[in-house]
Amino acid sequence: MRIHSLTLDNVRGIEHLELRELPDTGVIVIHGDNEQGKSTIMDALNVVLNQKHSAGNRHTKPLKPVHRDASPSVSLTATLGPVTFTIEKTWFRGKSARLTITAPQRESYTGDQAEAKLEELKERHLDAALLTTLFLRQDELGASVDAVGIPTLTRALDGAAGTDGESGTEDSGLLAAVDAEYRRYYTATGRDTGEFAQAKAELDAASTELAEATSLAAELDTFVTRFDRVTADRQRAEADLPEALTEAEELAGRARAAAEAAEKAARLHEDLARADEAVTHARGAVDQRRQLVDAVSLATADLTRRREGLEAATAAAEQEKTQLTSLGDQLAAARERQRSATEGLRAARATQRQAQDITRRDALAGQLAEVAELNEQIRTVRETQAGRQITDADVRAVEQATAEVTLQRRLREQAAAKLQLTATASTMITVNGEPVSVDGESTAVELADGTEITIGDVTARYVAGYAESTRGTDPVADAEKSLADLLADLDCADIDAVRAARDLARDADEKLATLTRQRSTLLGGSDPEALAAEHDRLVAELATADSVDLDPTAAAAAVRAAEEEQDTASAEASRIDAALTPWRDRTAALALTELNTRIEAAEATLATAEKSLAAAEEKVGAAELAAGVEKAQAARDAVAERVTLADAEVAEANPELARNLHDGAVARVESLRAAMTRAENQLAELTGRIDMATGAAERLEKAEAAHEAARHRCDSVTRRAEAARLLRETLHRHRDAARARYAQPFADQLSRLARTVFGHDVEFGLSEDLQVTRRSIGDATVPLEDLSGGAKEQLAILTRFAIAGLVSQDTGDGRVPVPVVVDDALGSTDPSRLQLMATLFTEMGKTSQVIVLTCVPQRYDRVVGRTEYPIDELKSAGRLI
Description:
Blueprint: E1 2-11, E2 14-19, E3 26-31, H1 38-50, E4 73-80, E5 83-90, E6 96-103, E7 107-110, H2 111-125, H3 128-134, E8 135-136, H4 151-160, H5 172-183, H6 194-307, H7 310-384, H8 392-415, E9 417-421, E10 427-431, E11 434-438, E12 443-447, E13 452-455, E14 458-461, H9 466-469, H10 475-490, H11 495-523, H12 528-542, H13 552-584, H14 587-619, H15 622-653, H16 655-692, H17 696-758, E15 762-766, E16 772-777, E17 780-783, H18 789-811, E18 820-823, H19 831-845, E19 849-854, E20 867-870, H20 871-876
Parallel strand pairs: 3-19, 3-20, 8-18, 18-19
Antiparallel strand pairs: 1-2, 1-4, 4-5, 5-6, 6-7, 9-12, 10-11, 10-13, 13-14, 15-16, 16-17
Helix pairs in contact: 4-17, 4-18, 5-17, 6-14, 6-15, 6-16, 6-17, 7-11, 7-12, 7-13, 7-14, 8-10, 8-11, 17-18
Pfam family, one: AAA_23
Keywords: Coiled coil
Protein name: AAA family ATPase
């Protein structure tokens, strides 16, 4: 299909748009700002080709105009195969359709006939799937293309792969019939469905019923067998119960005797523990008395040792006191000298600051005087600038006005009527009151309405005719008035005066700049008010000071001498202070104090130990403590002998074994009684179950017959289902093999185009439907969904170009049956790949019609031979080239 022209009226926001005489090949760029109707053009193409004029659906309703009560109308002129036609459609109010065929012969249709004829042409000459694919919308830039779904392309791929026949349709009728038969038995995912699933379900239900009937019959046999076994168990328990009761009573007596022996032994063990505690207590009293004696001995030895060092510590403390007194007196004298040196340094520095202030005051006075002089010069210059300043723009304006006067005068000289005067002798005349000399050479006098010429006693006044007097204003007078107004505004007599005033203003500006720089340099970034305030402060401070014969050099020397004296005194004081530092710790005095304190503590400790020992001896003597230990040990030995005899009796009785034997006998009695109760319950339950299972044999016979019938039906349906599956799998296997043959030509065409953008080592992975699933560049493989936005939109365009190129080869005449239409693409493409994509657009445009709708036409500046259509001009005019 070739698009020749398109006209839109009252479609969305477009009131009228005409796109005419499109070239058959080449890149056609339709551009404009957002929301100007570019995408509307593609929608209008789709609707006029695929929606009837009577339709009011989701495709046509969006065409209604915005803020206008009008019906949308679209007219398309195109060629399908050998047929060139114009289809015009109007929707909603005043709906209509008109189809005009101009080649190969003229025909005309209206209404439903026009729609029917258009459908016939599309079915015969247009691949709808190809049309949808090559009309690339903005929201499809990241989607892959199901290339197998395009009959024209599959036919071209079959030809490229060397396959005979019209396999582009893939025998879809047979495939559809086989799929329909397959769907009677299986779902799309291969699960059982329909009569096949029903037959299997019926067989499963019959099998379940047969299993249940068989189980019920088997259970009846089991119940009868269990009834006999439970009856025997009950009789056996009734026979064993009397003997078990007798055994339990005998073992209970043995267990009671053994428990009494164990209780007696436990009481004796408690008596033995109390006897052990008494022995331990008596021995502890003896150990405590021995500790009191040892404490007295240790306190006596410690007091003797500490008293031995008292004399030496006292002598060391006296020597330390003498040294502290001597060094302290030396340090006081050194610090007095240091204080005197500091006072001298303070006085010398005060004298030095006064001398520096005097020098600073005099320097500030000179600096401020120079600044005041410069300020006066600046004020004088600024006074000269107070009036109107003539600038270069003013000079240019006067020059232009002067040139305009000269130009108008020359024009008037050329166009105005003139009076040529000559005289045999030089004669003076007046023209409009101005004297003019006339001699043998011709003198021209311009004639205007009211011009007066006086020659001797004769005055001539020129009166212009009606046509000349009504021409309007005089350009020369207007130009002269403009020049006069400018000069009056600038207060200058002529252009030279204006230039002189301009030069004078320049000189004043330059002088002002020079003086300002000098003042800035003199101030050096300081604030003049701050300098003046500093000068006033120094004057006030020095007014009462005695500043006679202050020499800054001598003052500085005095400061240095005072600093040296202070340093010497400080060093001496530091030395003495350092020597005094160890003695300040009063180590000897502290040691003496600590020793006296420890002697006092040792005396107190000895007194306390002696007092504690005397009190203990007075209360209980050492002999009594020893006798108490012997008595407690004898009592403990007697209890231990009785414990040994009791433990032997317990070992003989073995209470734990006796208790366990009695517990076992009791458990046996309880078990026999429980078995009897359990048997009674089971016999009652089994009697009920046997009664309920009546008729199980008859149910089993019926279930076996029903299962056999269901199995025969399921086998029949299974054979038919498996035949349909085998036929479908065979057809699909052959179809997939055919697709595999023409997958390579499509991949080769796509890779050839993509090498320009992605490099020579690019390859693509394709699905069985020829959808691009991944891109590989060298060793790097990226799935389609993980590519960047720019790569996806580039790949979307490359895929359409590959399809168009293959279909073009299929036609045999070098023409693509459907144009490639791209809606606002390459927005995410970087500049370097944008250049490469431009070469592909150029190459595609050599044999194909490529229509680009964009708001950034600069993206396609590198496309050679493109044709541009601004959408604003398409809306306001008819044909634009």
